[in-house]
């Protein structure tokens, strides 16, 4: 049953760029703007899933935008200053894909460093330190004007070397979809492995986990490194698609969005962040494109309050309730 | 660094620290009693600014009278928010509380924005002119604006009043008991849910008091509050969660440090400096300056 659902969703996602105009005209987004919205949504699915992975290991972060930005800046700076030879494959810039991975690695190195300073910290203290790191990294990036362009930012290379706007979007859509599927699959495998069990043990009771012989410091750092790696990839992909990178990437909003998506969807599950991102970001951007410039945030705020009061375990718990009822009928 | 300007930088730092003290004391009160962190605290402050602004513009009240009324009305707003938003989710996890306050941030900011977009006088410069204007009081070694003296006096007297309330009245003692141990407080017959409401109301009033800084000629927008609230939270983390004296010390340290760094390295480093201090302190003392040791 579960496999059927996943396959249907995947097939639907693959078919979206070829939807006939007759269907898309009823959506708030049309043509390239639909693809643009979906590309950013996939990147945020990766980002939210990465945040969820860190939370799964009993830690938390209020400054995850730091990793998003480090991934994006590393990748953009490597391409701009080292100027690697273009490696074209079906008009895809393979060297950009490689630097995206480098961006993820850089983010995970910084993640381990931040994790090291946070090993002794708990809950709110941890949240505030991670938030602080996002502000500090953002300040450093802005102040290194010669390399990063300061507030003006710097242009980033597109993932696909196509002159035509729509065909570039189509290719990038498939690349980022592929990345998203791989990242979610990897996170699913990680949570099912021994590593995931160790994370869960630390989350439930750190002292007991230690008594059981789990090296809690090691696993917490692994959690930080993995989460930062996936966030870095998401950030690099996002900004190679957008084509321009400014310190806005470190904004508080980018730090808080994965939290909103994950909790709305359901924490500690693989499908929670995916569901939360799809529903909330569709509402968020859909209402905005209908011309409700500030009203949409009021509606979102009210909706989030209703969700957390009536579904404290997220939208996933609603699906489970519906599933249980239909099972009972059969 | 020119040493002659040092006293002045330190003084204005302490002055800027007052805003963090007022916000942090309110947050700390809420956290101590309910164990909830209200990230929307800055939005409550902005709401208070706009209440003052509207009372001043529509009823033509003296800004200081309007300010006093907004402190009182924010108490009831706070009680309402606790009752409607936070009580249903108490005990469902810390992340849900963060989520609720993020939702409140979006709701309050944009509701204010939409309301103001439809009101004529909001489209002028968003500011309140103080009746004391440019009057100055001389202290021998430096001249101070009358508004600044009022702000410092109000901050000190509010904190002292809170201290007396907590130590001397029976309601205050009941609140202290709730923050020390909720279950035992409940067993001794304290209505802890009423304490929650009271704490949130008082916390919101303190947020409203912090809005005093905007009454002395600083322009504001519906989005002025967020970063201040998060930094006020950093202040209470620095001082130690639940400790009022920690909040005061933290607020003053932040004010001075930010002013000195802005003087030395330029305004861009202002926010980063305060977080660098926070991280260094937490590496040395994981529970903050005045925080209690974990069991």
Short description:
Chain A has 330 residues and is an all-alpha fold. Chain A has 15 helices and 4 strands.
List the helices and strands and how they pair.
The complex is a heterodimer of chains A (330) and B (295).
Chain A (H helix, E strand, L loop, with lengths): L1 H14 L5 H4 L6 H26 L8 H18 L5 E2 L2 E2 H25 L4 H21 L1 H4 L5 E2 L9 H28 L1 H11 L1 H6 L4 H27 L1 E2 L6 H14 L5 H19 L5 H16 L4 H15 L1
Antiparallel strand pairs in A: 1-2, 3-4
Chain B lengths: L5 H29 L6 H18 L4 H24 L7 H24 L18 E3 L4 E3 H23 L1 H11 L1 H6 L4 H19 L1 H4 L10 H14 L4 H22 L4 H15 L11
Antiparallel strand pairs in B: 1-2
Helix pairs in contact in B: 1-5, 1-6, 1-8, 1-10, 1-11, 2-3, 2-4, 2-8, 3-8, 5-6, 6-8, 10-11, 10-12, 11-12
Explain what the structure shows.
The complex is a heterodimer of chains A (330) and B (295). Chain A is mainly α and 330 residues long. Chain A is built from 15 helices and four strands. Chain A has a domain at 34-250. Chain A has helices at 2-15, 21-24, 31-56, 65-82, 94-118, 123-143, 145-148, 165-192, 194-204, 206-211, 216-242, 252-265, 271-289, 295-310, 315-329, and strands at 88-89, 92-93, 154-155, 244-245. In chain A, a hairpin with a 2-residue loop joins β1 (88-89) and β2. In chain A, α3 runs antiparallel to α11 (216-242). The longest helix of chain A is centred in the middle third of the chain and has 28 residues, at 165-192. With 295 residues, chain B is mainly alpha-helical. Chain B has a domain at 21-225. Chain B is built from twelve helices and two strands. Chain B has helices at residues 6-34, 41-58, 63-86, 94-117, 146-168, 170-180, 182-187, 192-210, 212-215, 226-239, 244-265, 270-284, and strands at residues 136-138, 143-145. A two-stranded antiparallel sheet of chain B has the order 1-2. The longest helix of chain B has 29 residues, at 6-34. The interface between A and B is large, with 42 and 46 residues.
């Amino acid at each position: 049953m579960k496999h059927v659902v996943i396959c249907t969703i995947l097939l639907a996602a693959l078919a979206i760029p070829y939807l006939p105009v007759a269907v898309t005209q009823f959506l708030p987004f049309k043509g390239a703007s639909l693809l643009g919205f979906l590309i950013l949504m996939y990147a945020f699915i990766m980002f939210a899933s990465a945040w969820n992975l860190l939370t799964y290991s009993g830690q938390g972060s209020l400054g995850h935008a730091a990793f998003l930005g480090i991934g994006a800046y590393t990748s953009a700076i490597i391409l701009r200053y080292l100027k690697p030879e273009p490696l074209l494959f079906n008009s895809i810039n393979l060297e950009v894909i490689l630097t995206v991975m480098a961006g993820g690695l850089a983010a995970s190195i910084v993640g381990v460093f931040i994790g090291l300073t946070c090993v002794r910290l708990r809950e709110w203290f941890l949240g505030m330190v991670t938030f602080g790191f996002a502000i500090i990294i953002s300040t450093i990036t802005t102040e290194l004007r010669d390399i990063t362009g300061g507030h003006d930012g710097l242009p980033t290379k597109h993932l696909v070397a196509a002159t035509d706007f729509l065909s570039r979007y189509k290719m990038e859509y498939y690349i980022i979809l592929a990345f998203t599927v791989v990242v979610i699959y990897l996170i699913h495998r990680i949570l099912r492995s021994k590593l995931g069990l160790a994370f869960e043990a630390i989350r439930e009771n750190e002292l007991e986990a230690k008594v059981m012989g789990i090296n809690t410091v090691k696993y917490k750092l692994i959690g930080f490194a993995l989460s930062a790696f996936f966030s870095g990839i998401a950030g690099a992909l996002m900004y190679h698609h957008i084509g321009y990178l400014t310190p806005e990437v470190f904004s508080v909003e980018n730090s808080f969005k994965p939290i909103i998506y994950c909790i709305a969807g359901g924490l500690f599950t693989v499908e929670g962040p995916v569901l939360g991102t799809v529903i909330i970001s569709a509402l968020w951007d859909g209402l905005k494109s209908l011309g409700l410039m500030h009203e949409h945030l009021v509606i979102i705020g009210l909706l989030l309050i209703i969700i957390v009061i009536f579904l404290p375990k997220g939208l996933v718990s609603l699906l489970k309730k519906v599933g249980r009822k239909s099972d009972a009928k059969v | 660094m020119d040493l002659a300007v040092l006293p002045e930088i330190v003084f204005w730092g302490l002055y800027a620290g007052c805003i963090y003290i007022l916000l942090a004391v309110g947050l700390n009160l809420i956290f101590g009693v309910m164990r909830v962190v209200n990230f929307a605290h800055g939005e409550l402050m902005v709401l208070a600014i706009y209440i003052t602004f509207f009372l001043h513009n529509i009823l033509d009240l003296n800004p200081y009278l309007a300010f006093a009324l907004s402190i009182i009305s924010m108490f009831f707003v706070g009680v309402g928010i606790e009752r409607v938003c936070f009580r249903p989710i108490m005990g469902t996890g810390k992340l849900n509380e963060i989520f609720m306050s993020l939702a409140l941030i979006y709701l309050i900011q944009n509701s204010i924005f939409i309301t103001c977009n439809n009101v004529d006088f909001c489209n002028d410069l968003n500011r309140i002119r103080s009746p004391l204007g440019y009057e100055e009081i001389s202290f021998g070694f430096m001249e101070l604006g009358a508004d600044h003296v009022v702000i410092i006096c109000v901050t000190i007297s509010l904190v002292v009043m809170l201290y007396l309330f907590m130590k001397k009245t029976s309601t205050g003692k009941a609140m202290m008991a709730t923050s020390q141990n909720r279950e035992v407080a409940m067993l001794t017959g304290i209505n802890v849910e009423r304490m929650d409401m009271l704490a949130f109301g008082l916390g919101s009033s303190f947020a409203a008091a912090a809005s005093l800084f905007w009454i002395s000629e600083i322009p504001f927008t519906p989005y002025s509050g967020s970063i201040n609230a998060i930094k006020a939270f950093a202040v209470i983390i620095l001082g130690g969660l639940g400790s009022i004296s920690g909040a005061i010390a933290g607020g003053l340290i932040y004010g001075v440090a930010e002013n000195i760094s802005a003087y030395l390295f330029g305004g861009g480093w202002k926010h980063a400096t305060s977080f660098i201090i926070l991280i260094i302190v937490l590496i040395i003392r994981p529970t903050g300056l005045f925080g209690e040791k974990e069991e």
